[in-house]
Design goal:
Length: 533
């Protein structure tokens, strides 16, 4: 069993924990992959669930919507709780809750039971997910973090496209005549292994009991997220009535009220959900907005692509998933290259990745335009592979740059905020891309176009949104500020008296310097060495 790492201690257990950081990262990524793939694996099973449980269209939509809402709402507060009570403890609680909820999903007797279990699943995912990046941030020395973050990017990219393949395979196999249920039950052995291995390998990084959660900030942030996410999820189902846009508009004043509240909390020395230093950090804000725009394009694209392949050209879920395999292969290759680059040329890699994705979407539109009444799957290999390469190149430096200047004591808050922004972007993108796709599809069919021609026009038009998003990401990357050499180390060595203290930028520094207070002003955070090399 891995021993706790206490402030100021220097026992051999700490050395062992540090030496096993790559094994610990593998466990973190396994649990993260289990959570990420669950978002996409469910989509291919929705028709089977509806038929088996006798669900209404609204009920089956909430199988997806309930998870997204609880996950997005929980990321910020549970990320902060990782800073308070300990990141490993929160990670283990999240994995345990997610695994148990998966069992209930797999045994659901009716649609109401399934929706409730999916909401709990989303809470479990929100508890575990912010801890993955925050543990990695303090577990690895700066020179190794680029590879660690590239592996997280690889996991995110693979999960986005592996879900349809895995879901289609499990439903096609119909294990033990269970139909769609194995897509949830498969999480039981994975979660059990993650709990067993995590308890032994993941190092104990103690929390800071002196921190407190910001309940006012939680309420305002939750209300703002709810006002934005709920209309995006439900808008198309309701036909986009006026009240949907009114609810969405309320998200803006609520977000402004949240910023005002956090400034007030900082001025009075009270607890902050998102430390003011993060909101004042140009790289964190710019890279986070870039991540939001980037991830608004990815999930929506694979949603409409699945509809194009399955409904438009009659592929079954398994064949549809296999068609997208060039994309994760590209992600794998690019992530390995990006990891070997360390933190060098972060801005250039983001721009190159975004440019590759623009090229990918342009080639895809060209390939789709040449299709007839039969699908030439080979024509999609190059566009999808190029898109995977661009995704693998861009994700790692985006996350690195955003979290580079976040001190370890606020790592949970920074990670939770970043991934909450990412989820908002994903929900927004799915709503926008699907709206474009189905609007063009309906208009084409109404004008007398054939089925295949209508679907080709819908996909070609929808990916224009992706091209625009990747162009915005390229422009935002130009505003990322290159850090000064050694800036991260100096930021990590400052204690609240301004003295040079032990380095806290790495896992070893946490052991030596946890007992010292961080700079209370929160205005001296600078971009660390993640993106300086």
């Amino acid at each position: 069993m891995n021993e706790a790492i206490r402030p100021g201690s220097a026992g051999t257990a700490e050395g062992r924990a540090h030496e096993r950081r790559w094994m610990a990262m593998a466990v973190l990524l396994l649990a993260s992959f289990m959570n990420m793939i669950d978002v996409t694996i469910v989509n291919v099973a929705l028709p089977s669930m509806r038929a088996d449980l006798g669900a209404t269209e609204s009920g089956i939509e909430w199988v997806v919507a309930g998870y997204i809402l609880s996950f997005a709402l929980g990321l910020l507060p549970f990320g902060r709780y990782g800073d308070i009570i300990g990141k490993k403890r929160m990670f283990m609680l999240g994995v345990g809750g997610f695994t148990l909820a998966s069992a209930v999903c797999g045994m659901a007797a009716n649609i109401e039971m399934l929706i409730a279990a999916r909401i709990i699943q989303g809470v479990g995912g929100a508890v575990m997910t912010p801890q993955v990046l925050s543990i990695a941030q303090v577990m690895f020395p700066p020179k190794e973090r680029a590879m660690a973050f590239s592996l997280f990017g690889l996991t995110a990219g693979l999960a986005s496209v592996a879900g349809p393949v895995a879901g289609g395979s499990l439903i096609h196999a119909d294990l033990f005549d269970l139909g769609w249920r194995p897509i949830f039950l498969i999480n039981l052995p994975i979660g059990a292994f993650a709990l067993w291995a995590g308890a032994r390998i993941i190092p104990d990084i103690p929390g800071n009991p002196g921190l407190r959660n910001d309940w006012g900030g939680i309420a305002l942030a939750g209300a703002a997220i709810l006002c934005l996410i709920f209309p995006l999820i439900e808008g198309r189902g309701f036909g986009w009535p006026f009240w949907i846009f009114v609810v969405m508009a309320f998200a803006l004043p609520l977000a402004a009220a949240f910023v005002w509240w956090e400034k007030r909390q900082n001025a009075t020395g009270a607890a902050e959900l998102v430390p003011l230093g993060l909101m004042a950090n140009r790289n964190f804000v710019t890279a986070s907005v870039g991540a939001m725009v980037f991830f608004s394009a990815l999930p929506g694209f694979f949603f409409v692509l699945a509809v194009f392949l399955q409904s438009g050209y009659g592929l079954d879920p398994l064949s549809s998933g296999v068609t997208t395999i060039p994309f994760p292969v590209g992600v794998l290759i690019a992530s390995l290259i990006s990891g070997r680059s360390g933190g060098k040329f972060a801005r250039s890699r983001i721009i190159l990745g975004a440019a590759s994705l623009i090229g990918s979407m342009t080639l895809l539109r060209s390939a789709v335009g040449t299709l007839g009444d039969t699908l030439d799957q080979a024509s999609l290999i190059l566009p999808l592979a190029l898109g995977g390469l661009g995704t693998g190149l861009a994700i790692s430096p985006l996350f690195q740059t955003a979290l580079a200047g976040v001190p370890p004591k606020d790592a949970g808050s920074g990670s939770g905020a970043l991934q909450s922004i990412q989820q908002i972007g994903g929900a927004f993108g799915v709503a926008i891309i699907s709206q474009i796709f189905f609007a063009v599809l309906g208009g084409s069919l109404a004008s007398g176009a054939g089925q295949h021609a209508a679907y080709r026009a819908a996909l070609s038009t929808a990916v224009l949104y992706n091209i625009a998003c990747y162009g915005v990401v390229s422009l935002l990357a130009l505003f990322l500020k290159a850090p000064r050499k050694g800036a991260g180390s100096r930021a990590g060595r400052q204690n609240d008296m301004g003295d040079a203290g032990p380095e806290v930028d790495s896992f070893d520094g946490i052991r030596a310097g946890r007992s010292r207070a961080w700079d209370a002003s929160r205005h001296r955070y600078v971009c660390g060495s993640l993106c300086e090399r």
